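Researcher: Good morning. I'm working through a list of sequences from a screen, and I'd like to move beyond sequence-only analysis. For each chain I'm collecting a predicted structure so we can compare shapes side by side. This is the next one on the list. No need for commentary yet; just the structure.
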Amino acid sequence: MTNNEFEVLDELYFLQSYTYLAKTLELDDHKLKTTLRQLLEKKWVKCFASPMEELDFEPGKFENDFWNYYYLASKEGLLAHNGNA
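Model: Good morning. Structure tokens for this chain:
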């Protein structure tokens, strides 16, 4: 797990918007987007269109709309974050 992945997962124990992550983390937009994409590909993070509507990860759609989404660590992501994966 990279330092960026660890930092992002640390913020995703609860559902958070991209805007919140961008303001809270010291990552530029490119690094944050890349890290979120990596976490989604590993299935360590889930993506939501709204707080109640989970989305399936679609790389093309993610590239166009990543800043509009909400994110939450998955069970696998939480285990990885805590050193159990």
